[in-house]
Amino acid sequence: MRRALLAVAGALLLLGAACSSDEGGDPGPPLEGTTWVLTSYDGPDVPDGVSVDLLLEDGKASGRSGCNSYGGSYETSGDQLTFGPLAATQMACPQEQMDVEAAYLAALERTASSAVDGDELVLSDAQGAELLRFRQG
User: Tell me: the pLDDT tens digits for 54-74?
Assistant: First the structure.
Protein backbone atom coordinates (compact mmCIF):
# COMPACT_ATOMS: atom_id res chain seq x y z
CA MET A 1 0.00 0.00 0.00
CA ARG A 2 2.80 2.38 0.91
CA ARG A 3 4.60 1.63 -2.36
CA ALA A 4 1.42 2.34 -4.31
CA LEU A 5 0.97 5.67 -2.53
CA LEU A 6 4.59 6.63 -3.25
CA ALA A 7 4.16 5.68 -6.91
CA VAL A 8 0.98 7.77 -7.18
CA ALA A 9 2.65 10.71 -5.42
CA GLY A 10 5.66 10.48 -7.75
CA ALA A 11 3.42 10.37 -10.81
CA LEU A 12 1.48 13.42 -9.59
CA LEU A 13 4.71 15.34 -9.03
CA LEU A 14 5.89 14.54 -12.56
CA LEU A 15 2.51 15.49 -14.00
CA GLY A 16 2.52 18.78 -12.07
CA ALA A 17 6.02 19.61 -13.29
CA ALA A 18 5.03 18.92 -16.89
CA CYS A 19 1.91 21.06 -16.63
CA SER A 20 3.75 23.99 -15.11
CA SER A 21 6.51 24.12 -17.70
CA ASP A 22 6.92 27.49 -19.38
CA GLU A 23 5.90 26.63 -22.92
CA GLY A 24 4.67 30.16 -23.62
CA GLY A 25 8.14 31.69 -23.63
CA ASP A 26 9.46 34.50 -21.49
CA PRO A 27 6.56 36.31 -19.80
CA GLY A 28 8.64 39.49 -19.94
CA PRO A 29 8.67 42.50 -17.67
CA PRO A 30 5.64 43.52 -15.63
CA LEU A 31 3.07 45.80 -17.23
CA GLU A 32 3.33 48.26 -14.35
CA GLY A 33 6.57 49.94 -13.34
CA THR A 34 8.18 49.39 -16.77
CA THR A 35 8.83 52.17 -19.27
CA TRP A 36 7.38 51.14 -22.65
CA VAL A 37 8.60 52.78 -25.87
CA LEU A 38 6.13 52.94 -28.76
CA THR A 39 7.24 51.12 -31.92
CA SER A 40 4.00 51.17 -33.96
CA TYR A 41 0.54 52.71 -33.75
CA ASP A 42 -2.58 51.68 -35.66
CA GLY A 43 -0.22 49.94 -38.09
CA PRO A 44 2.57 52.40 -39.03
CA ASP A 45 5.97 52.37 -37.37
CA VAL A 46 6.89 55.39 -35.29
CA PRO A 47 9.01 57.75 -37.43
CA ASP A 48 12.67 58.22 -36.51
CA GLY A 49 13.16 61.15 -34.17
CA VAL A 50 9.67 60.93 -32.62
CA SER A 51 9.69 59.78 -28.99
CA VAL A 52 6.59 58.21 -27.45
CA ASP A 53 6.61 56.25 -24.21
CA LEU A 54 4.31 55.00 -21.49
CA LEU A 55 4.80 54.36 -17.78
CA LEU A 56 2.03 52.80 -15.71
CA GLU A 57 2.49 53.06 -11.98
CA ASP A 58 0.09 53.12 -9.03
CA GLY A 59 -2.95 53.95 -11.18
CA LYS A 60 -1.17 56.81 -12.96
CA ALA A 61 -0.21 56.74 -16.65
CA SER A 62 2.46 59.15 -17.89
CA GLY A 63 5.00 59.67 -20.63
CA ARG A 64 5.91 61.54 -23.78
CA SER A 65 3.37 61.51 -26.59
CA GLY A 66 5.49 62.58 -29.56
CA CYS A 67 5.66 66.27 -28.76
CA ASN A 68 4.18 66.83 -25.32
CA SER A 69 4.17 65.15 -21.94
CA TYR A 70 0.92 63.54 -20.82
CA GLY A 71 -0.60 61.97 -17.76
CA GLY A 72 -3.81 60.55 -16.39
CA SER A 73 -5.31 57.54 -14.70
CA TYR A 74 -5.68 53.90 -15.71
CA GLU A 75 -7.30 50.74 -14.36
CA THR A 76 -6.39 47.09 -14.86
CA SER A 77 -8.28 43.88 -14.22
CA GLY A 78 -6.65 40.74 -15.60
CA ASP A 79 -5.71 41.59 -19.18
CA GLN A 80 -8.20 44.48 -19.29
CA LEU A 81 -6.66 47.96 -19.37
CA THR A 82 -8.54 51.22 -19.63
CA PHE A 83 -7.37 54.80 -19.41
CA GLY A 84 -9.21 57.63 -17.70
CA PRO A 85 -9.07 61.20 -18.97
CA LEU A 86 -5.58 62.13 -20.15
CA ALA A 87 -4.10 65.64 -20.01
CA ALA A 88 -1.12 66.84 -22.05
CA THR A 89 1.06 69.91 -22.23
CA GLN A 90 0.31 72.13 -25.23
CA MET A 91 3.62 72.79 -26.99
CA ALA A 92 3.69 73.03 -30.77
CA CYS A 93 6.06 70.74 -32.68
CA PRO A 94 6.70 69.75 -36.30
CA GLN A 95 3.59 68.29 -37.97
CA GLU A 96 4.97 64.73 -38.05
CA GLN A 97 5.28 64.71 -34.26
CA MET A 98 1.84 66.25 -33.82
CA ASP A 99 0.27 63.61 -36.11
CA VAL A 100 1.83 60.75 -34.12
CA GLU A 101 0.77 62.37 -30.87
CA ALA A 102 -2.87 62.77 -31.95
CA ALA A 103 -3.08 59.15 -33.15
CA TYR A 104 -1.35 57.85 -30.00
CA LEU A 105 -3.55 59.68 -27.51
CA ALA A 106 -6.69 58.67 -29.42
CA ALA A 107 -5.54 55.02 -29.38
CA LEU A 108 -4.97 55.14 -25.62
CA GLU A 109 -8.59 56.27 -25.19
CA ARG A 110 -9.80 53.24 -27.23
CA THR A 111 -7.63 50.73 -25.33
CA ALA A 112 -9.51 47.85 -23.72
CA SER A 113 -6.81 45.22 -23.12
CA SER A 114 -3.08 44.64 -22.85
CA ALA A 115 -0.72 41.73 -23.41
CA VAL A 116 2.96 41.49 -22.49
CA ASP A 117 4.97 38.99 -24.53
CA GLY A 118 8.72 38.92 -24.00
CA ASP A 119 9.86 42.53 -24.11
CA GLU A 120 6.81 43.75 -26.05
CA LEU A 121 3.53 45.25 -24.90
CA VAL A 122 0.47 45.27 -27.17
CA LEU A 123 -2.60 47.39 -26.44
CA SER A 124 -5.81 46.38 -28.22
CA ASP A 125 -9.34 47.72 -28.60
CA ALA A 126 -12.55 46.04 -27.41
CA GLN A 127 -12.70 43.90 -30.58
CA GLY A 128 -9.12 42.69 -30.08
CA ALA A 129 -7.59 44.78 -32.88
CA GLU A 130 -4.04 45.93 -32.16
CA LEU A 131 -3.81 49.66 -31.51
CA LEU A 132 -0.32 50.20 -30.10
CA ARG A 133 2.87 48.12 -29.87
CA PHE A 134 5.71 48.95 -27.49
CA ARG A 135 9.09 47.52 -26.54
CA GLN A 136 10.61 47.64 -23.10
CA GLY A 137 12.51 50.93 -22.76
Answer: 999 999 999 999 999 999 999
